[in-house]
Every structure is written in structure tokens, then in C-alpha cells.
Amino acid sequence: MDSLLENRPGRQHITNYSTIVLIDSDEFERIENKGVGEEETFELIDAEVKEIMIRNQMVAFNNNYEDYEQLGIEISDYDNPKKLISFDNVLRYFNETNPALISATEDELRQYLPKDLPKLMTLDSFHFMSRFEDDKFNVPSSQETFQLIAKVLATQDPAHWKPTQEPNNHWSNWESGWL
Questions:
Q1: Whether this model's pTM surpasses 0.90
Q2: Which Pfam families does this one have (predicted)?
Q3: What are the tens digits of pLDDT across the range 16-25?
Q4: Residue 129 in domain
Q5: In which domain, by residue range, is 144 found?
Q6: How many domains does the chain have?
Q7: Is residue 159 part of a domain?
Q8: pLDDT, position 1
Q9: Are residues 152 and 64 in the same domain?
Q10: Same structural domain for residues 25 and 93?
């Protein structure tokens, strides 16, 4: 089993996450609106862009803001009179129209797991609660989601995943809107 060893200048440590680059910095620079005059450019995709490289493959880019709005994706008009699509909104759009494009692959999910460890289930929708929600300290063991995960793991039976709380981890439920 490979470990999540992160190398930083002057130090090396084990981490509990892995970064998957969907769109690299060169591609962000290529697609970013170049703007003229007072036009906003930061994190907006240029109107002339037809394709975006995601995971090293060119993917058609839909720049019709109305298609985004039909999916509940709000396009900011603040300093954006042309209603250009933002970097975060294109990811929301792909989440709604082609989620496999931006989701971790099976190989990426299993990269740091023993090869003989069986897959029990995948959770895409669940009820998330911050540890500090409602001015309370909500330890994971007090939350239904983690209790059910523990039961599934302890019994090795995904049939125990029977949540009673509505999933809320979809981007549209987040106040900040961040993915």
C-alpha cells in the first residue's frame, strides 16, 4: 500500500488527502477572460473559449449562461455585464451535466488502499454537519452520517446505510456556494 507522503521544501510528512488536478494553472491562464478596459477578468472564462482541458482531455465548453441558470447556477452580474461563466460555475455545470468528468476515478479512489480491501459502497450524497454548527461542538460520533458509516464498516454490509436525514452536501446547499 502506498502512503500519502507529501514532500515540501525542507520537510516530508504523511497527509490524509490527495490532490487531483482537474484543470491545471496553464489551462486556467489560457481560458481566463482577457478583458478590455474596466471589464472584470478574474476567474471568468473568455467568451471565445470553446473547449477546456480537464484531466488532460479537451472537453466542449458551453458558455451560454442561460443553460447554467436553468440548472440553478447563478451567474454573477457584478462586474460581469457579458454574463461570462466563472471557474467555479463551470465545475458546478459539469457536476450537473457530466459528474464523472470531475469525480475521482476508481483508480484514484483506491490508490492508497490495499489491493485486497473490498469496496463496500460509494457515498455521493449524504448529510454533512460541521463540527461547529449551531454554536455547538458536534463530534462525528454524534452525527447520523458517521454512525451509519461505522455500522457499515463494522458489519461490512452496505444495507445498513439507511439515512433518515436529507442529503445536503450538494453545492446548491452551501451558503458560500463553494464546491
A1: no
A2: DUF7003 (PF22535)
A3: 777 889 999 9
A4: yes
A5: 120-173
A6: 2
A7: yes
A8: 47
A9: no
A10: yes
